[in-house]
Amino acid sequence: MHKFTRSLWVLAALVALVAIIACAPAAQPTAAPPTAAPQPTAAPAQPTLAPAQPTAAPPTAAPQPTAMPVEPTQASTGAQGTIVYLKNIDDVVSMDPAQAYEFSGWLAIHSMYDTLVKFEGKDLTNLKPSLATKWDVKTAADGSSEITFTLADGVKFASGNPVTSADVVYSFQRGIALGKPPSFLWTDVGGLKEDSITAPDAKTVVLKMPTGTSPGEFLNVLTAPPLSIVDSVEVKKHEAQVDGKNDFGNTWLSTNSAGTGPYMLDHWTKDVEFLLKANPNSAVQPKTPQILVKHVPEAANQQSQLEKGDADIAHDLTPEQITALAGNKDVVTSKAGNLQIFYMGMNVKLKELSDNKVREAIRYAIDYEGIANDLLSGNAQILQTVIPNGLLGANTEVIFKRDVEKAKSLLKEAGHENGLEIDMLTLTGNQGLVPMGDLGAKIQADLAEVGIKLNVKQQPAAELLGTYRAQNAPIVLLLWGPDYPDPNTNASPFAAYSAGVIAKRNNWEDQKATDMANAAKLEKDPAKRVALYKELTDYIAHNGPYAVLFQPQQLFATRANVQGFDWNPMGYADLWTIAK
How many of the other CB atoms lie within 10 Å of CB of 410? Predict the structure, then answer.
Protein backbone atom coordinates (compact mmCIF):
# COMPACT_ATOMS: atom_id res chain seq x y z
CA MET A 1 0.00 0.00 0.00
CA HIS A 2 2.78 3.14 -0.66
CA LYS A 3 5.17 4.70 1.65
CA PHE A 4 7.39 7.43 2.37
CA THR A 5 9.40 4.60 1.26
CA ARG A 6 8.76 3.71 -2.18
CA SER A 7 6.32 6.41 -2.96
CA LEU A 8 4.98 7.90 0.21
CA TRP A 9 2.42 5.16 0.42
CA VAL A 10 2.14 5.08 4.01
CA LEU A 11 1.31 8.46 5.09
CA ALA A 12 -2.26 7.34 5.13
CA ALA A 13 -3.14 3.89 5.98
CA LEU A 14 -2.99 3.12 9.54
CA VAL A 15 -4.12 6.62 9.98
CA ALA A 16 -1.91 8.54 7.69
CA LEU A 17 0.57 7.68 5.03
CA VAL A 18 2.21 5.16 7.26
CA ALA A 19 5.60 4.50 6.06
CA ILE A 20 6.73 8.01 5.81
CA ILE A 21 9.71 6.91 7.47
CA ALA A 22 12.45 6.02 5.43
CA CYS A 23 10.96 3.23 3.58
CA ALA A 24 12.42 2.23 0.33
CA PRO A 25 10.52 2.48 -2.87
CA ALA A 26 3.58 0.91 -0.29
CA ALA A 27 -0.10 0.53 2.81
CA GLN A 28 -1.39 1.06 4.49
CA PRO A 29 -1.77 -2.71 5.03
CA THR A 30 1.24 -7.31 9.91
CA ALA A 31 4.27 -13.07 10.48
CA ALA A 32 5.12 -14.12 7.08
CA PRO A 33 4.85 -17.59 5.67
CA PRO A 34 7.62 -20.06 5.30
CA THR A 35 10.09 -19.60 2.55
CA ALA A 36 10.32 -23.28 2.02
CA ALA A 37 8.60 -24.47 -1.08
CA PRO A 38 5.12 -25.25 0.16
CA GLN A 39 3.59 -28.58 -0.63
CA PRO A 40 0.79 -28.50 -3.18
CA THR A 41 -2.37 -27.52 -1.39
CA ALA A 42 -5.52 -29.51 -1.90
CA ALA A 43 -8.07 -27.85 -4.13
CA PRO A 44 -11.11 -26.46 -2.32
CA ALA A 45 -14.47 -28.08 -2.82
CA GLN A 46 -15.71 -25.00 -4.63
CA PRO A 47 -13.94 -22.15 -6.35
CA THR A 48 -12.99 -19.34 -4.04
CA LEU A 49 -14.81 -16.76 -6.09
CA ALA A 50 -17.55 -16.57 -8.63
CA PRO A 51 -18.73 -14.33 -11.41
CA ALA A 52 -20.18 -10.90 -11.21
CA GLN A 53 -22.19 -8.62 -13.40
CA PRO A 54 -20.41 -6.85 -16.24
CA THR A 55 -18.94 -3.47 -15.50
CA ALA A 56 -20.13 -0.53 -17.54
CA ALA A 57 -18.33 0.17 -20.80
CA PRO A 58 -15.87 3.03 -20.47
CA PRO A 59 -15.66 6.20 -22.50
CA THR A 60 -13.16 6.26 -25.31
CA ALA A 61 -11.41 9.29 -23.89
CA ALA A 62 -9.24 8.88 -20.84
CA PRO A 63 -11.64 9.61 -17.97
CA GLN A 64 -10.70 11.74 -15.00
CA PRO A 65 -11.70 10.87 -11.44
CA THR A 66 -15.41 11.50 -10.94
CA ALA A 67 -16.29 15.11 -10.29
CA MET A 68 -17.52 16.06 -6.84
CA PRO A 69 -21.25 15.33 -6.69
CA VAL A 70 -23.71 18.06 -5.94
CA GLU A 71 -25.29 15.93 -3.21
CA PRO A 72 -23.65 13.23 -1.10
CA THR A 73 -24.44 9.63 -1.91
CA GLN A 74 -27.74 8.62 -0.35
CA ALA A 75 -26.05 5.60 1.15
CA SER A 76 -24.25 8.00 3.46
CA THR A 77 -27.31 8.12 5.72
CA GLY A 78 -26.22 4.87 7.36
CA ALA A 79 -28.96 2.74 5.83
CA GLN A 80 -29.20 -0.90 6.84
CA GLY A 81 -27.74 -2.15 3.57
CA THR A 82 -24.69 0.12 3.71
CA ILE A 83 -21.69 0.36 6.01
CA VAL A 84 -20.45 3.96 6.20
CA TYR A 85 -16.71 4.03 6.91
CA LEU A 86 -15.05 7.38 7.74
CA LYS A 87 -11.40 7.78 6.82
CA ASN A 88 -8.91 10.23 5.41
CA ILE A 89 -8.72 8.94 1.81
CA ASP A 90 -6.84 11.80 0.17
CA ASP A 91 -4.00 9.35 -0.49
CA VAL A 92 -5.98 7.50 -3.19
CA VAL A 93 -4.47 8.12 -6.62
CA SER A 94 -5.94 5.19 -8.55
CA MET A 95 -8.05 2.05 -8.20
CA ASP A 96 -5.77 0.16 -10.60
CA PRO A 97 -4.01 -2.61 -8.62
CA ALA A 98 -0.85 -2.12 -10.69
CA GLN A 99 -0.66 1.54 -9.68
CA ALA A 100 -2.23 1.94 -6.23
CA TYR A 101 0.40 1.96 -3.52
CA GLU A 102 -1.50 3.77 -0.81
CA PHE A 103 -3.41 2.34 2.14
CA SER A 104 -6.84 3.67 1.21
CA GLY A 105 -6.51 2.31 -2.31
CA TRP A 106 -5.47 -1.08 -0.95
CA LEU A 107 -8.51 -1.09 1.35
CA ALA A 108 -10.73 -1.01 -1.75
CA ILE A 109 -8.63 -3.24 -4.02
CA HIS A 110 -8.40 -5.99 -1.40
CA SER A 111 -12.19 -6.34 -1.57
CA MET A 112 -12.54 -6.08 -5.36
CA TYR A 113 -9.78 -8.42 -6.52
CA ASP A 114 -8.14 -11.70 -5.64
CA THR A 115 -4.55 -12.88 -5.74
CA LEU A 116 -3.11 -16.29 -6.56
CA VAL A 117 -2.52 -17.03 -2.88
CA LYS A 118 -3.64 -15.23 0.26
CA PHE A 119 -3.50 -14.89 4.00
CA GLU A 120 -6.76 -15.11 5.88
CA GLY A 121 -7.63 -12.29 8.27
CA LYS A 122 -4.79 -11.30 10.57
CA ASP A 123 -2.85 -14.53 10.14
CA LEU A 124 0.26 -13.68 8.15
CA THR A 125 1.96 -17.02 8.71
CA ASN A 126 -0.12 -19.60 6.85
CA LEU A 127 -0.39 -19.23 3.11
CA LYS A 128 -3.78 -20.30 1.70
CA PRO A 129 -5.15 -21.05 -1.78
CA SER A 130 -7.05 -18.31 -3.57
CA LEU A 131 -7.21 -18.16 -7.37
CA ALA A 132 -4.56 -20.87 -7.34
CA THR A 133 -5.54 -24.13 -5.65
CA LYS A 134 -1.98 -25.42 -5.41
CA TRP A 135 1.58 -24.39 -6.12
CA ASP A 136 4.90 -26.15 -6.37
CA VAL A 137 8.42 -24.75 -6.04
CA LYS A 138 11.51 -26.24 -7.65
CA THR A 139 14.99 -24.88 -7.01
CA ALA A 140 17.87 -25.62 -9.36
CA ALA A 141 21.47 -26.24 -8.38
CA ASP A 142 22.41 -22.70 -9.40
CA GLY A 143 19.85 -21.25 -6.99
CA SER A 144 17.28 -20.24 -9.59
CA SER A 145 13.69 -21.24 -8.89
CA GLU A 146 10.47 -22.08 -10.67
CA ILE A 147 7.00 -21.74 -9.12
CA THR A 148 4.14 -23.54 -10.85
CA PHE A 149 0.54 -22.58 -10.00
CA THR A 150 -2.62 -24.52 -10.81
CA LEU A 151 -5.71 -22.33 -11.08
CA ALA A 152 -9.13 -23.11 -9.60
CA ASP A 153 -11.93 -24.23 -11.86
CA GLY A 154 -15.12 -22.27 -12.44
CA VAL A 155 -13.98 -18.86 -11.25
CA LYS A 156 -15.22 -15.87 -13.22
CA PHE A 157 -14.55 -12.16 -13.33
CA ALA A 158 -17.23 -9.52 -12.81
CA SER A 159 -17.69 -9.44 -16.58
CA GLY A 160 -18.55 -13.12 -16.65
CA ASN A 161 -15.26 -13.99 -18.34
CA PRO A 162 -13.60 -17.12 -16.89
CA VAL A 163 -10.29 -16.77 -15.08
CA THR A 164 -7.48 -18.40 -17.08
CA SER A 165 -3.72 -18.44 -16.97
CA ALA A 166 -3.72 -15.77 -19.69
CA ASP A 167 -5.21 -13.33 -17.17
CA VAL A 168 -2.40 -14.02 -14.70
CA VAL A 169 0.28 -13.56 -17.35
CA TYR A 170 -1.35 -10.32 -18.54
CA SER A 171 -1.77 -8.97 -14.99
CA PHE A 172 1.86 -9.54 -14.08
CA GLN A 173 3.30 -8.41 -17.40
CA ARG A 174 1.24 -5.18 -17.35
CA GLY A 175 2.41 -4.52 -13.79
CA ILE A 176 6.01 -4.70 -14.98
CA ALA A 177 5.38 -2.76 -18.20
CA LEU A 178 3.51 0.09 -16.49
CA GLY A 179 6.44 0.71 -14.15
CA LYS A 180 4.21 2.25 -11.47
CA PRO A 181 5.21 2.28 -7.77
CA PRO A 182 4.33 -1.41 -7.15
CA SER A 183 6.39 -2.67 -10.11
CA PHE A 184 9.45 -3.28 -7.91
CA LEU A 185 7.56 -6.15 -6.27
CA TRP A 186 7.83 -8.13 -9.48
CA THR A 187 11.20 -6.89 -10.70
CA ASP A 188 13.27 -6.24 -7.57
CA VAL A 189 11.84 -8.78 -5.13
CA GLY A 190 10.87 -11.50 -7.59
CA GLY A 191 13.56 -10.82 -10.15
CA LEU A 192 10.93 -11.25 -12.86
CA LYS A 193 10.93 -9.95 -16.40
CA GLU A 194 7.94 -10.09 -18.72
CA ASP A 195 9.21 -13.28 -20.36
CA SER A 196 9.70 -14.90 -16.93
CA ILE A 197 5.92 -15.40 -16.70
CA THR A 198 4.42 -18.10 -18.91
CA ALA A 199 1.26 -20.18 -19.26
CA PRO A 200 1.76 -23.75 -20.56
CA ASP A 201 -2.02 -24.22 -20.59
CA ALA A 202 -5.21 -22.45 -19.53
CA LYS A 203 -4.93 -23.61 -15.91
CA THR A 204 -1.17 -23.43 -15.32
CA VAL A 205 1.14 -20.46 -14.68
CA VAL A 206 4.91 -20.73 -14.32
CA LEU A 207 7.18 -18.07 -12.79
CA LYS A 208 10.92 -18.41 -13.37
CA MET A 209 12.99 -16.60 -10.75
CA PRO A 210 16.74 -16.00 -11.01
CA THR A 211 19.50 -16.92 -8.59
CA GLY A 212 19.54 -14.70 -5.51
CA THR A 213 15.77 -14.39 -5.22
CA SER A 214 13.65 -16.20 -2.65
CA PRO A 215 10.55 -18.05 -3.85
CA GLY A 216 9.27 -18.14 -0.27
CA GLU A 217 9.54 -14.39 0.02
CA PHE A 218 7.84 -13.89 -3.33
CA LEU A 219 4.94 -16.18 -2.37
CA ASN A 220 4.34 -13.75 0.49
CA VAL A 221 4.56 -10.84 -1.92
CA LEU A 222 1.88 -12.48 -4.05
CA THR A 223 -0.67 -11.86 -1.28
CA ALA A 224 -0.34 -8.06 -1.61
CA PRO A 225 -3.10 -6.11 -3.46
CA PRO A 226 -0.85 -4.95 -6.35
CA LEU A 227 -0.43 -8.61 -7.34
CA SER A 228 -4.20 -8.91 -7.92
CA ILE A 229 -5.39 -10.61 -11.09
CA VAL A 230 -7.35 -8.47 -13.55
CA ASP A 231 -9.70 -9.51 -16.36
CA SER A 232 -7.41 -9.36 -19.39
CA VAL A 233 -10.25 -9.60 -21.90
CA GLU A 234 -12.15 -6.71 -20.34
CA VAL A 235 -9.13 -4.50 -19.66
CA LYS A 236 -7.78 -4.91 -23.18
CA LYS A 237 -11.02 -3.43 -24.49
CA HIS A 238 -10.13 -0.23 -22.67
CA GLU A 239 -6.45 0.08 -23.48
CA ALA A 240 -5.65 3.57 -24.75
CA GLN A 241 -2.71 5.49 -26.14
CA VAL A 242 -1.38 7.93 -23.56
CA ASP A 243 1.60 10.06 -24.56
CA GLY A 244 2.11 7.73 -27.50
CA LYS A 245 2.25 4.59 -25.37
CA ASN A 246 -0.16 1.80 -24.54
CA ASP A 247 -1.56 2.46 -21.06
CA PHE A 248 -2.63 -1.19 -20.65
CA GLY A 249 -6.03 -0.02 -19.47
CA ASN A 250 -4.53 2.00 -16.62
CA THR A 251 -6.68 5.07 -17.29
CA TRP A 252 -9.88 3.02 -17.29
CA LEU A 253 -8.94 0.90 -14.27
CA SER A 254 -8.24 4.05 -12.28
CA THR A 255 -11.99 4.55 -11.92
CA ASN A 256 -13.38 1.09 -12.71
CA SER A 257 -12.82 -2.46 -11.52
CA ALA A 258 -12.29 -5.77 -13.32
CA GLY A 259 -11.75 -8.34 -10.62
CA THR A 260 -13.17 -11.46 -9.02
CA GLY A 261 -13.71 -10.14 -5.49
CA PRO A 262 -16.85 -9.89 -3.34
CA TYR A 263 -17.27 -6.21 -4.29
CA MET A 264 -17.13 -4.12 -7.46
CA LEU A 265 -16.39 -0.40 -7.74
CA ASP A 266 -19.52 1.69 -8.18
CA HIS A 267 -17.63 4.99 -8.20
CA TRP A 268 -14.68 6.83 -6.77
CA THR A 269 -14.95 10.59 -6.32
CA LYS A 270 -11.53 11.98 -5.51
CA ASP A 271 -11.26 13.41 -1.99
CA VAL A 272 -14.97 12.71 -1.43
CA GLU A 273 -15.79 8.98 -1.30
CA PHE A 274 -15.73 5.60 -2.96
CA LEU A 275 -18.62 3.16 -3.03
CA LEU A 276 -18.27 -0.60 -3.32
CA LYS A 277 -21.25 -2.71 -4.39
CA ALA A 278 -21.64 -6.44 -3.93
CA ASN A 279 -20.84 -8.85 -6.72
CA PRO A 280 -24.12 -10.84 -6.79
CA ASN A 281 -22.50 -13.92 -8.36
CA SER A 282 -19.60 -14.21 -5.98
CA ALA A 283 -19.21 -17.42 -3.99
CA VAL A 284 -18.26 -15.11 -1.12
CA GLN A 285 -21.37 -13.03 -0.53
CA PRO A 286 -20.74 -9.85 1.48
CA LYS A 287 -22.57 -9.50 4.78
CA THR A 288 -23.48 -5.95 3.73
CA PRO A 289 -24.34 -5.11 0.09
CA GLN A 290 -22.59 -1.72 0.03
CA ILE A 291 -19.51 -0.20 1.65
CA LEU A 292 -19.29 3.59 1.44
CA VAL A 293 -15.89 4.96 2.43
CA LYS A 294 -16.18 8.72 2.96
CA HIS A 295 -13.34 11.21 3.04
CA VAL A 296 -13.55 12.80 6.49
CA PRO A 297 -10.01 13.85 7.40
CA GLU A 298 -10.86 15.66 10.64
CA ALA A 299 -10.95 13.34 13.63
CA ALA A 300 -13.46 15.59 15.41
CA ASN A 301 -15.90 15.29 12.50
CA GLN A 302 -15.45 11.53 12.44
CA GLN A 303 -16.33 11.33 16.13
CA SER A 304 -19.36 13.59 15.73
CA GLN A 305 -20.80 11.62 12.80
CA LEU A 306 -20.19 8.32 14.55
CA GLU A 307 -21.92 9.44 17.74
CA LYS A 308 -24.93 10.77 15.80
CA GLY A 309 -25.30 7.45 13.97
CA ASP A 310 -24.48 8.91 10.56
CA ALA A 311 -21.51 6.57 10.25
CA ASP A 312 -20.62 3.04 11.32
CA ILE A 313 -16.82 3.02 11.51
CA ALA A 314 -14.31 5.79 12.35
CA HIS A 315 -10.72 5.11 11.33
CA ASP A 316 -8.67 8.10 12.46
CA LEU A 317 -9.60 8.91 16.06
CA THR A 318 -7.01 10.05 18.59
CA PRO A 319 -6.32 8.29 21.90
CA GLU A 320 -8.09 11.17 23.66
CA GLN A 321 -11.21 10.64 21.54
CA ILE A 322 -11.14 6.91 22.16
CA THR A 323 -11.04 7.61 25.90
CA ALA A 324 -13.89 10.12 25.59
CA LEU A 325 -16.06 7.55 23.81
CA ALA A 326 -15.56 4.91 26.50
CA GLY A 327 -18.82 5.79 28.28
CA ASN A 328 -20.98 5.87 25.14
CA LYS A 329 -23.12 2.70 25.06
CA ASP A 330 -23.79 3.17 21.34
CA VAL A 331 -20.09 3.04 20.41
CA VAL A 332 -17.44 0.33 20.74
CA THR A 333 -13.72 1.15 20.66
CA SER A 334 -10.97 -1.29 19.73
CA LYS A 335 -7.25 -1.63 19.07
CA ALA A 336 -5.69 -3.55 16.21
CA GLY A 337 -2.26 -4.56 15.03
CA ASN A 338 -0.01 -2.23 13.10
CA LEU A 339 3.31 -3.23 11.53
CA GLN A 340 4.91 0.19 11.68
CA ILE A 341 8.02 0.58 13.79
CA PHE A 342 9.31 3.89 15.17
CA TYR A 343 13.06 4.19 15.34
CA MET A 344 16.01 6.54 15.69
CA GLY A 345 18.59 6.31 12.92
CA MET A 346 22.13 7.40 13.87
CA ASN A 347 24.45 8.45 11.05
CA VAL A 348 27.79 6.73 11.56
CA LYS A 349 29.42 9.25 9.24
CA LEU A 350 29.44 11.58 12.24
CA LYS A 351 32.52 11.04 14.41
CA GLU A 352 30.54 10.78 17.63
CA LEU A 353 28.08 8.25 16.24
CA SER A 354 30.74 6.17 14.50
CA ASP A 355 31.58 4.80 17.97
CA ASN A 356 29.09 2.09 18.85
CA LYS A 357 29.61 2.83 22.54
CA VAL A 358 27.90 6.18 21.98
CA ARG A 359 25.06 4.50 20.08
CA GLU A 360 24.72 1.89 22.84
CA ALA A 361 24.65 4.68 25.43
CA ILE A 362 21.77 6.30 23.59
CA ARG A 363 19.90 2.98 23.50
CA TYR A 364 20.28 2.58 27.28
CA ALA A 365 19.32 6.20 27.96
CA ILE A 366 15.82 5.93 26.47
CA ASP A 367 12.77 5.44 28.70
CA TYR A 368 10.93 2.92 26.51
CA GLU A 369 8.26 2.18 29.10
CA GLY A 370 7.53 5.86 29.63
CA ILE A 371 7.07 6.36 25.88
CA ALA A 372 4.76 3.38 25.36
CA ASN A 373 2.72 3.54 28.54
CA ASP A 374 2.65 7.23 29.42
CA LEU A 375 3.25 9.34 26.32
CA LEU A 376 1.24 7.00 24.08
CA SER A 377 -1.28 6.00 26.77
CA GLY A 378 -0.56 2.30 26.42
CA ASN A 379 -1.36 2.32 22.70
CA ALA A 380 2.02 0.94 21.68
CA GLN A 381 4.14 -2.14 22.27
CA ILE A 382 7.80 -1.77 23.17
CA LEU A 383 9.81 -3.13 20.25
CA GLN A 384 13.59 -2.91 20.02
CA THR A 385 14.36 -4.93 16.92
CA VAL A 386 13.77 -4.30 13.23
CA ILE A 387 11.14 -6.98 12.46
CA PRO A 388 7.72 -6.08 13.90
CA ASN A 389 5.52 -8.37 15.91
CA GLY A 390 3.22 -10.14 13.45
CA LEU A 391 5.82 -11.07 10.86
CA LEU A 392 7.78 -14.31 10.72
CA GLY A 393 11.03 -13.92 12.65
CA ALA A 394 9.79 -11.09 14.87
CA ASN A 395 11.99 -10.63 17.92
CA THR A 396 9.98 -8.99 20.70
CA GLU A 397 12.60 -9.46 23.41
CA VAL A 398 13.15 -6.39 25.60
CA ILE A 399 16.89 -6.00 25.12
CA PHE A 400 17.37 -2.52 26.61
CA LYS A 401 15.91 -1.16 29.83
CA ARG A 402 16.64 2.37 30.84
CA ASP A 403 19.93 2.48 32.73
CA VAL A 404 21.23 6.02 33.21
CA GLU A 405 24.43 4.96 34.95
CA LYS A 406 25.31 2.41 32.29
CA ALA A 407 24.70 5.00 29.58
CA LYS A 408 26.99 7.49 31.35
CA SER A 409 29.66 4.81 31.74
CA LEU A 410 29.54 3.98 28.03
CA LEU A 411 29.87 7.68 27.13
CA LYS A 412 32.88 7.96 29.45
CA GLU A 413 34.51 4.93 27.77
CA ALA A 414 33.92 6.64 24.43
CA GLY A 415 35.70 9.78 25.62
CA HIS A 416 32.59 11.87 26.23
CA GLU A 417 32.63 12.08 29.99
CA ASN A 418 31.51 15.70 29.73
CA GLY A 419 28.72 14.85 27.35
CA LEU A 420 28.13 15.81 23.74
CA GLU A 421 25.71 17.78 21.58
CA ILE A 422 23.98 16.57 18.43
CA ASP A 423 20.95 17.37 16.24
CA MET A 424 17.95 15.10 15.70
CA LEU A 425 15.54 15.61 12.79
CA THR A 426 11.93 14.52 13.01
CA LEU A 427 8.64 15.18 11.26
CA THR A 428 6.07 17.84 11.98
CA GLY A 429 2.60 16.97 13.27
CA ASN A 430 1.31 13.52 14.18
CA GLN A 431 2.09 10.23 12.53
CA GLY A 432 -0.99 8.22 13.29
CA LEU A 433 -1.55 8.46 17.02
CA VAL A 434 2.01 9.65 17.63
CA PRO A 435 2.71 13.38 18.16
CA MET A 436 6.24 13.61 16.77
CA GLY A 437 7.06 16.81 18.62
CA ASP A 438 6.12 15.29 21.96
CA LEU A 439 8.02 12.10 21.19
CA GLY A 440 11.10 14.12 20.25
CA ALA A 441 10.85 16.16 23.45
CA LYS A 442 10.60 12.98 25.55
CA ILE A 443 13.74 11.50 23.99
CA GLN A 444 15.48 14.86 24.34
CA ALA A 445 14.75 14.85 28.08
CA ASP A 446 15.88 11.22 28.47
CA LEU A 447 19.22 11.84 26.76
CA ALA A 448 19.80 15.06 28.69
CA GLU A 449 19.97 13.01 31.90
CA VAL A 450 23.02 11.11 30.64
CA GLY A 451 24.79 14.21 29.31
CA ILE A 452 23.68 14.29 25.67
CA LYS A 453 22.23 17.59 24.48
CA LEU A 454 19.83 16.70 21.70
CA ASN A 455 18.66 19.55 19.47
CA VAL A 456 15.28 18.47 18.09
CA LYS A 457 14.44 19.98 14.72
CA GLN A 458 11.02 19.29 13.19
CA GLN A 459 10.82 19.44 9.42
CA PRO A 460 8.28 18.71 6.67
CA ALA A 461 8.64 15.22 5.26
CA ALA A 462 10.02 16.29 1.89
CA GLU A 463 12.79 18.34 3.49
CA LEU A 464 13.71 15.75 6.10
CA LEU A 465 13.69 12.83 3.73
CA GLY A 466 15.77 14.75 1.21
CA THR A 467 18.47 15.21 3.83
CA TYR A 468 18.15 11.63 5.07
CA ARG A 469 18.32 10.06 1.63
CA ALA A 470 21.39 12.16 0.85
CA GLN A 471 23.01 10.52 3.92
CA ASN A 472 23.41 13.90 5.63
CA ALA A 473 21.01 13.62 8.57
CA PRO A 474 22.70 13.36 12.00
CA ILE A 475 20.02 11.51 13.98
CA VAL A 476 16.52 10.98 12.64
CA LEU A 477 13.34 10.04 14.48
CA LEU A 478 11.09 8.30 11.96
CA LEU A 479 8.91 5.29 11.25
CA TRP A 480 8.88 2.46 8.76
CA GLY A 481 6.06 0.30 7.42
CA PRO A 482 6.45 -2.95 5.45
CA ASP A 483 5.74 -3.21 1.73
CA TYR A 484 4.63 -6.84 1.95
CA PRO A 485 4.18 -9.48 4.67
CA ASP A 486 7.64 -11.03 4.75
CA PRO A 487 10.46 -10.28 7.21
CA ASN A 488 12.90 -9.41 4.45
CA THR A 489 10.89 -6.27 3.71
CA ASN A 490 12.42 -4.94 6.95
CA ALA A 491 15.56 -7.05 7.35
CA SER A 492 17.25 -6.10 4.10
CA PRO A 493 16.67 -2.31 4.31
CA PHE A 494 17.95 -2.13 7.90
CA ALA A 495 20.82 -4.61 7.48
CA ALA A 496 22.26 -4.15 4.01
CA TYR A 497 23.93 -0.96 2.76
CA SER A 498 23.61 -2.41 -0.75
CA ALA A 499 19.80 -2.34 -0.46
CA GLY A 500 20.11 1.43 -0.77
CA VAL A 501 17.64 2.27 1.97
CA ILE A 502 17.93 2.71 5.74
CA ALA A 503 21.39 1.25 6.36
CA LYS A 504 22.73 3.38 3.51
CA ARG A 505 21.02 6.53 4.77
CA ASN A 506 22.82 6.05 8.07
CA ASN A 507 26.12 5.22 6.30
CA TRP A 508 26.26 1.83 8.00
CA GLU A 509 28.04 -0.77 5.88
CA ASP A 510 28.42 -4.05 7.75
CA GLN A 511 29.12 -7.11 5.65
CA LYS A 512 28.22 -9.49 8.45
CA ALA A 513 24.74 -8.00 8.76
CA THR A 514 24.31 -8.09 4.98
CA ASP A 515 25.32 -11.75 4.79
CA MET A 516 23.05 -12.66 7.70
CA ALA A 517 20.04 -10.96 6.08
CA ASN A 518 20.67 -12.68 2.75
CA ALA A 519 21.05 -16.09 4.38
CA ALA A 520 17.77 -15.64 6.27
CA LYS A 521 15.97 -14.54 3.10
CA LEU A 522 17.08 -17.61 1.14
CA GLU A 523 16.61 -20.20 3.90
CA LYS A 524 13.84 -22.64 2.92
CA ASP A 525 13.23 -24.29 6.28
CA PRO A 526 10.84 -22.03 8.23
CA ALA A 527 12.18 -22.98 11.67
CA LYS A 528 15.76 -22.34 10.57
CA ARG A 529 14.67 -19.06 9.00
CA VAL A 530 13.16 -17.90 12.29
CA ALA A 531 16.41 -18.78 14.08
CA LEU A 532 18.46 -16.83 11.53
CA TYR A 533 16.27 -13.75 11.98
CA LYS A 534 16.73 -14.00 15.76
CA GLU A 535 20.50 -13.89 15.27
CA LEU A 536 20.22 -11.01 12.80
CA THR A 537 17.89 -8.88 14.92
CA ASP A 538 20.03 -9.37 18.02
CA TYR A 539 23.13 -8.38 16.07
CA ILE A 540 21.54 -5.23 14.63
CA ALA A 541 20.08 -4.25 18.01
CA HIS A 542 23.56 -4.06 19.56
CA ASN A 543 25.71 -3.12 16.56
CA GLY A 544 23.52 -1.25 14.13
CA PRO A 545 22.98 2.52 13.90
CA TYR A 546 19.46 2.34 15.36
CA ALA A 547 17.47 2.62 18.51
CA VAL A 548 14.15 0.92 17.75
CA LEU A 549 11.48 2.29 20.08
CA PHE A 550 8.01 0.82 19.70
CA GLN A 551 5.29 -0.57 17.48
CA PRO A 552 2.03 1.46 17.63
CA GLN A 553 -1.50 0.13 17.57
CA GLN A 554 -4.32 1.18 15.29
CA LEU A 555 -7.34 2.65 17.06
CA PHE A 556 -10.93 2.25 15.84
CA ALA A 557 -14.43 3.12 16.94
CA THR A 558 -17.59 1.53 15.56
CA ARG A 559 -21.29 1.70 16.29
CA ALA A 560 -22.25 -0.95 18.82
CA ASN A 561 -24.30 -2.88 16.28
CA VAL A 562 -21.39 -3.36 13.86
CA GLN A 563 -20.00 -6.90 13.76
CA GLY A 564 -17.25 -8.64 11.83
CA PHE A 565 -14.83 -5.71 11.46
CA ASP A 566 -11.38 -7.25 11.76
CA TRP A 567 -8.34 -5.16 10.86
CA ASN A 568 -5.37 -6.70 9.06
CA PRO A 569 -2.11 -5.18 10.33
CA MET A 570 -0.93 -4.83 6.72
CA GLY A 571 -3.38 -1.94 6.47
CA TYR A 572 -6.76 -3.17 5.28
CA ALA A 573 -9.77 -5.29 6.29
CA ASP A 574 -12.00 -7.97 4.80
CA LEU A 575 -14.86 -5.54 4.22
CA TRP A 576 -17.19 -8.34 3.12
CA THR A 577 -17.32 -9.74 6.68
CA ILE A 578 -18.80 -6.56 8.19
CA ALA A 579 -22.48 -6.56 9.18
CA LYS A 580 -24.86 -4.54 11.33
Answer: 23
3-state percent breakdown (helix, strand, coil) of the chain, nearest 5:
30, 20, 45
How far apart (Å, rounded) are the C-alpha atoms in residues 213 and 523?
Answer: 11
Between CA 341 and CA 346, with CA 342 as vertex, the angle to 5 degrees is 120
Angle between helices 356-365 and 436-448 (to 10 degrees): 110
What confidence category does residue 79 fall into, taking pLDDT thresholds of 50, 70 and 90?
low
What CA–CA distance (Å, rounded) separates 506 from 497? Answer: 9
Model pLDDT for residues 147-163, shown as the tens digit of each residue = 999 999 999 999 999 99
Measured CA distances, 47 to 165, 367, 392, 472 (Å): 15, 52, 29, 53
pLDDT in tens, 206-244: 999 999 999 999 999 999 999 999 999 999 999 999 999
State the Cα angle at 140 between 134 and 141, rounded to 5°.
150
Query: Between 481 and 511, where is the model more confident?
Result: 511
Mean pLDDT of 31-43: 34
Cα–Cα dist 137/215, whole Å: 7
Residue type at position 78: G
- Characterize the bridge pairing of strands 567-568 and 430-431: unpaired
Q: Percent of the chain at pLDDT above 70?
A: 86
Mean pLDDT across the stretch 468-481?
96
Residues of the chain with CATH 3.10.105.10: 341-552
The matching CATH number, chosen from 3.90.76.10, 3.10.270.10, 3.40.50.1100, 3.40.50.1820, for 94-261 is 3.90.76.10
CATH class label, 341-552:
alpha beta
